[in-house]
Amino acid sequence: MTFFHFGNCIALAFGPYFLTYKYSGMPEYGAFWRCAQVGGMYMLTQLCKMLMLATFFPTSDGPPETASLVTEMVKTTVDFGDVMGLSIVLGRVPGVGHIKILITGLGWAAADLLLTRALPLWVGARGLEFDWKYIQISLDANISLVHHLNMALLVWLWWRSDLAAAVRPIVAVLLAGCVYRPLLPQLLGILVGSPPVGFALLAACATPTLCTAIIACHVFITHSASYH
């Protein structure tokens, strides 16, 4: 039972990444090592973000509940470093638009999966008892894949010189929404009285991710149609 639970969690977490790579046309471009290079840039970006947080926002000795929403918002602003990192990667990855977006987004998301979720799944999902927590971690990895692909798409759109002026503010708002998405559970907790947990937390993360992804894809399709 333990082996099947572990295998289920691994398949649920890593399967969509493999399927995205295999059936998106990236193997035809030899994109595996490019994705690995994007993952290296992801690690460098996260290191710079941690140094900034440790320098300007040192951890306090008080309980985490005392942290104000404004303080968390300021800390979350550091995540704009991901936007800068994605911009650098998109400028260096060769290929047509949609391949650049797929390589950058998938490489970024895969590095995030390996660094933040692989170890908890390896250590915890092999335990003697079944725990829904690891299913939630696996599902959250799928949400993260959509999130990072969406971020790469929005950054690519933002730097397009031929993007319509009326659309650029929409892209900017969507980018800001992606960056500040981690604050949504805290905002819901303030409105409802208690922060969402479990699958409610997954729903709170998945809903804005899917909404912004649908809008971004519509902008991309419209832009591509008008460009051609």
Explained architecture:
By secondary structure, the chain is mostly helical. It has one domain (about 1-60, about 65-225). It contains 10 helices and no strands. Helix 2 packs antiparallel against helix 4 (about 80-90) and helix 5 (about 95-115) runs antiparallel to helix 7. The chain is globular, with a radius of gyration of 18 Å.
Protein topology:
Blueprint lengths: L1 H22 L8 H25 L12 H8 L3 H13 L4 H20 L1 H7 L7 H27 L9 H12 L4 H9 L6 H29 L1
Helix pairs in contact: 1-5, 1-7, 2-4, 2-5, 4-7, 5-7, 7-8, 7-10, 8-10
End-to-end CA span: 54 Å
| Helix/strand order, N-terminal first | HHHHHHHHHH
Task: Provide a count of the helices.
Answer: 10
Low-confidence stretches: 62-66
Tell me how many strands there are: 0
Q: What Rg, in angstroms, do the CA atoms define? A: 18 Å
Fraction of helical residues: over 70%
User: What characterizes the major β-sheet?
Assistant: none
Proportion of residues in extended strands: under 5%
Short recap of the structure:
This protein has 228 residues and is mainly α. The chain has 10 helices and no strands.
Which features characterize this protein?
about 75% helix; globular; about 230 residues; mainly alpha; single chain
